[in-house]
Design brief:
Helices cover about 40% and strands about 20% of the residues. By secondary structure, the protein is α/β, with parallel strands linked by helices. The protein has an 8-stranded mixed beta sheet with strand order 3-2-1-4-5-6-7-8, sandwiched between helices. α2 crosses α6, α3 packs parallel to α4 (about 105-130) and α4 packs parallel to α5 (about 160-180).
Length: about 240
């Protein structure tokens, strides 16, 4: 790409709102990329492999990010800083559900789940949070499966449920740390979505979920809260 073309793109990015979406090559992540692009945002989408993306757009940049690798996290943050400088919104969407059909906790699956859903999410957020503008937002994609006060709890997916409970607690602690900078930190339940993780019997499409998440971003929802994207209602941790 020629120098002046690069300068034009950089100038455009300076005036556009900028969002980083992890796990953006498929499912909810890909639907979020499409939604925010259609709404006029500049978007950085991450996945473990840059070749996994099936779409291109003038306002989309794709970077590699493996949340289980500290070196990959550092490289990704450097890429984000060089491309965008600062960001308005971080959507921590990347995650795994390795034991959704299992009732017996397995050490290997618990460790692997936490490596991505908890340790990776926290390490990446801590590394990139200083790029958030004052008034910026962090959306942690969580799940009602991690709620401790649910009356009906199915005895499966111990690792996944525990990881989402941990994400919710991280939302609460990070929101307290970033409150002075006027940065919101919010957990979001995306719904039961027709993805590789949710399965074909799920209730809603990735596009419907992404639209709900976008609408929550456009609303003036308070920090340190938990919301359902499908119904646009606040949840009770």
């Amino acid at each position: 790409m020629f120098f002046w073309q690069m300068m034009e793109l950089y100038s455009n990015f300076k005036v556009m709102k900028k969002v980083v979406i992890t796990g953006a090559n498929r499912g909810i992540g890909l639907a979020l990329v499409t939604k925010f692009l259609n709404e006029g945002f500049a978007v950085i989408g991450t996945s473990r492999s840059k070749d996994a993306f099936t779409i291109s757009h003038p306002d989309l940049r794709i970077i590699a990010l493996d949340l289980t690798s500290q070196l990959s996290i550092e490289n990704a943050v450097n890429d984000i800083k060089s491309i965008f400088g600062t960001i308005d919104l971080l959507v921590n969407n990347a995650g795994v559900g390795l034991d959704l059909d299992s009732e017996i906790p397995e050490d290997e699956l618990i460790r692997a789940t936490f490596e991505t859903n908890v340790f990776g999410l926290i390490n990446f957020t801590e590394a990139v949070k200083d790029l958030l503008k004052e008034g910026g937002t962090v959306f942690n994609i969580s799940s009602v499966m991690g709620m401790l006060n649910r009356e009906k709890l199915v005895p499966n997916a111990t690792a996944y449920r525990m990881s989402k409970s941990a994400v919710n607690m991280y939302t609460k602690t990070l929101s307290a740390r970033l409150m002075d900078k006027n940065i919101k930190v919010v957990s979001i339940h995306p719904g039961w979505v027709k993805t590789d993780m949710g399965g074909i019997e799920a209730d809603i499409t990735p596009e419907f979920s992404a639209n709900g998440i976008y609408n929550l971003y456009k609303q003036d929802i308070p920090t340190n809260t938990f919301w359902a994207a499908e119904t646009q209602t606040q949840l009770n941790w």
